[in-house]
Amino acid sequence: MVMEMLSALPGYDWCGVYRFENRELLLDEFVGAPTEHVRIPIGVGVCGTAVAENRNLTIEDVSKVDNYLSCSFSTKSEIVVLIRDGKGKILGQIDIDGHRVGNFEKSDEAFLGRLAEMLAERWE
User: Fold this and answer.
1) pLDDT digit string (tens) for 41-69?
2) Once rounded to an integer, what is the mean pLDDT over residues 70-78?
3) How far is CA 87 from CA 1, 20, 24, 25, 75, in A?
4) Which residues 6+ apart lie within 8 Å of 81 measured at CB?
5) Tell me, what CATH number does 72's domain have?
6) What pLDDT does residue 117 have?
7) How far apart are CA 43 and CA 24, in angstroms?
8) Cβ–Cβ under 8 Å, residues 78 and 100
9) Which residues make Cβ contacts (< 8 Å) with residue 7, sequence separation at least 6?
């Protein structure tokens, strides 16, 4: 339901949640075009790099990322916000793709960060 609500926002063209399990990211719920990237190793692509570097990532132009995993030719920008438990352990992440370069700003990171906190409270 949360991904469906996010996908209704302007510029949130693909919205998904990855779970962090056994040293890899596993695609959970998503709204948007299907992707072959249902398992992402740590350190690979924007999603895997966010976990490896233990930080959120906002990518203005994905064409400038060397290890970018393309889900769609339409994707031009991406934001990944980590979901953490109360002790800081990474549970997963919110991944949003946009079809416009420079689609995401600090306000998007703050908004998704709050959403990540709420998801963490209900994580099972």
Assistant:
1) 999 999 999 999 999 999 999 999 888 87
2) 86
3) 26, 15, 20, 19, 33
4) 56, 93, 94, 109, 112, 113, 115, 116
5) 3.30.450.40
6) 97
7) 9
8) no
9) 13, 14, 15, 31, 32
What local confidence, expressed as pLDDT, does residue 3 receive? 94
Q: What is the mean pLDDT of the chain?
A: 94
Round to whole Å and give the CA distance between 90 and 85.
7
In the block, tokens 């352990």 appear at: 89
Tell me whether residue 8 is in a domain: no
Q: Can you name the residues that pair with 21 across neighbouring β-strands?
A: 24
- Whether 86 is covered by a domain: the verdict is yes
Total structural domains in the chain? 1
CB-based contacts of 101, cutoff 8 Å, min separation 6: 60, 61, 76, 77
Q: How far apart, in Å, are the Cα atoms of 3 and each of 18, 36, 48, 54, 88?
A: 12, 18, 20, 23, 23
Provide the token pair at 37. Answer: 């990237």
Using a 10 angstrom Cβ sphere, with 0-12 exposed, 13-18 middle and 19 or more buried, the burial of residue 103 is buried
Residues 6, 29: Cα–Cα separation, whole Å: 12
Is 5 contained in some domain?
Answer: no
- Bridge partner list, 95: 16, 80
